[in-house]
């Protein structure tokens, strides 16, 4: 079993699991209910984690995940709604006034 992805946002991890399962990759989700026990366990123990069960699927899984992650990154430049500055798509915050996207 090899860990391929983890995120504090459980729905994000679930989304990645669906993606891999849709491509015939068998997966295992750890700490699925972790958020309910935050505070009782060390923080690191409760990050939802996605594993692939078989090592032969690892390369494929990583390809799918990195494509998915790249696709979800902001790529387009955006205009700040507060001050009207043009902000590079790599930034989630206005360089001029600090407002979040
Ligand atoms: Zn701004």
What do you see in this structure?
With 101 residues, the chain is an alpha+beta fold. The chain has a single domain, classed as Alpha-Beta Plaits, CATH 3.30.70. It is built from two helices and five strands; from the N terminus they run E-H-E-E-H-E-E. The chain has helices at 10-22, 58-72; strands at 2-6, 27-30, 49-52, 78-79, 86-87. The strands form two sheets. A three-stranded antiparallel sheet has the order 1-3-2, with helices on one face. A two-stranded antiparallel sheet has the order 4-5. A hairpin with a 6-residue loop joins strand 4 and strand 5. The longest helix is centred in the middle third of the chain and has 15 residues, at 58-72. The radius of gyration is 17 Å and the shape is elongated. The N and C termini lie far apart (37 Å). The model has no long low-confidence stretch (mean pLDDT 86). Bound molecules: zinc ion.
Structural topology:
Blueprint: E1 2-6, H1 10-22, E2 27-30, E3 49-52, H2 58-72, E4 78-79, E5 86-87
Antiparallel strand pairs: 1-3, 2-3, 4-5
**Looking across the biggest beta sheet, what order are the strands in?**
1-3-2
* Total count of helical runs of at least 4 residues: 2
Name the overall outline: elongated
- Order of helices and strands, N to C? EHEEHEE
Q: How many strand elements?
A: 5
Keywords:
101 residues; alpha+beta; Alpha-Beta Plaits; three-stranded antiparallel β-sheet; two-stranded antiparallel sheet; 5 strands; 17% strand; binds zinc ion
């Amino acid at each position: 079993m090899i860990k391929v992805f983890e995120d504090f946002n459980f729905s994000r991890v679930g989304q990645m699991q669906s993606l891999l399962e849709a491509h015939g990759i068998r997966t295992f989700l750890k700490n699925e209910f972790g958020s309910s026990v935050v505070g009782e366990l060390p923080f690191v123990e409760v990050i939802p984690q996605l594993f692939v069960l078989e090592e032969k699927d690892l390369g494929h899984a990583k390809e799918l995940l990195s494509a998915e992650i790249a696709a979800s990154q902001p790529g387009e430049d955006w205009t700040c709604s507060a001050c009207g500055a043009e902000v590079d798509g790599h930034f989630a915050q206005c360089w001029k006034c600090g407002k979040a996207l």
